[in-house]
Please model this.
Amino acid sequence: MENGLGHITRNLPDMKPGEVWLVGAGPGDPGLLTLHAVNALSQADVIVHDALVSNDCLGLAKPGAEIEYAGKRGGKPSARQRDISYRLVELAKQGRKVLRLKGGDPFVFGRGGEEALTLVEHGIPFRIVPGITAGIGGLAYAGIPVTHRETNHTVTFLTGHNSSGAVPDGIDWQGVARGSQVIVMYMAMKHFDAIANRLMEAGRDAGEAVAFVTDASTADQKVLETTLGRAAADLAESGLEPPAIVVVGKVVEFRKAFDWLGALSGKTLTPDPLGTRAVEQKDSA
Model:
C-alpha cells in the first residue's frame, strides 16, 4: 500500500471549471498554507485575493494564472464586498477555475460567509478550505498562546471596528471584560484607545498585559508588549501600523518563555514566566 506525502498529494481533489474555492491562506508564512490551499493554487485559472495574502503565497500560483486584487483596507479606497462576490459568480459562469484566496481563515472576520451565500444564490458549486487564522497562528509566531492551563479557560475573538469603521456598538464590552480572561482582537489598532477605556471602565486592570503583533508570521513581524493603561501612548510612540492582532490577558506574559523566534536570534527565554511552577511542584511533592 502506498503511503506518505506522495499518496496524499495524488489524492487531493481536482478543481473543476465553473467552481469557486474559498480558501484561507493563513497569516502570511507560506509554510502555513494547507495542502488543499497549495493544491488550489496549482490548479486555479484565476485567483481573486485580498490585501492580507502575501506575495510568497501568490508565488505558488500555476504559470499563466490570472491574479486579481480585491483587497479591503480600513480608511482606504476598496472594492465593495457586493462587487467582489458577484465577480466570483461572473468568473465561474465563464467556466474558469476560480480561487478566492483570503488571509487567515475565510470564516473568521473574512466575510467568506457573504461570498458563499452569493455563490449559493446563483447556483455556483464551491468548496471551503479553512486556513490558520491570525488570532491563533499569528500569536503563536509571537510566542503567545491563546490558552494556557495556568491562566485561562476562556478566550473571546472580536473585531475592533464595524462596517463603517467605528468601534462596534453591538459588542457587550461589559460582558466581554467580565467574562473572558483573554481577548483577541482583529482590526482593533486604530481604535484601541477607546477600546482600552471601555475595558477598564468595565473593570479590567490598567496594568493588564497587552500585545500588538503586526505582519504576523512574516519576516517583517513586530511585537509590542505593553499594558491596557499604557497601550495608546506606547502604540503611538512605536510607529507600528495596522494590520495587527491584539491580545489582552495574562497569556501575553508567556512570551518571555515561548518567543521561539527570538530564541533563534539569541534571546534567552525564561522557563517560569509566571513564577508558579515552583509552587506547583512543592504542592505536588
Summary: The beta strands are 20-24, 46-49, 66-69, 98-102, 126-129, 155-159, 182-186, 209-214, 222-227, 244-248. The first strand starts at residue 20 and ends at 24. The domain at 5-132 is CATH 3.40.1010.10 (Cobalt-precorrin-4 Transmethylase; domain 1). The two ends are 50 Å apart (CA to CA).
